[in-house]
């Protein structure tokens, strides 16, 4: 039985520890994991690589996650975007996000969200 392998995931997170943790968790689910430190870098990586999934924080310097999502949606209305925030209220981006999660993120929780966005009957976390 095969494991779920997404072609690529983009993580946009200004907290270095959080981005490293997410990268470690998600590297088992994707062929390639890209990491950006703010929304501006995230938008540039998105435009260059067109990842299969985007996971982003909301509150970042230079360009916020919300601003980045709005710009990405101008190019691609279908790429799944998961918003991860330390703030429980993500209602201002819910309509543009595929899923939202509150920090701290548990490994099982992020894997479950990915499973829901990319269903695969033989997937085992």
Automatic annotation (TrEMBL):
GO biological process: phosphorelay signal transduction system
The Response regulatory domain, residue ranges: 8-118
Keywords of the record: Phosphoprotein
Residue(s) carrying 4-aspartylphosphate: 57
SMART domains for this protein: REC
Source organism superkingdom: Bacteria
Stored InterPro entries: CheY-like_superfamily, Sig_transdc_resp-reg_receiver, ST_Response_Regulator
Pfam families to which the protein is assigned, alphabetical: Response_reg
Name of the protein: Response regulator receiver
Species, as recorded: Desulfurispirillum indicum (strain ATCC BAA-1389 / DSM 22839 / S5)
Lineage of source species: Bacteria, Pseudomonadati, Chrysiogenota, Chrysiogenia, Chrysiogenales
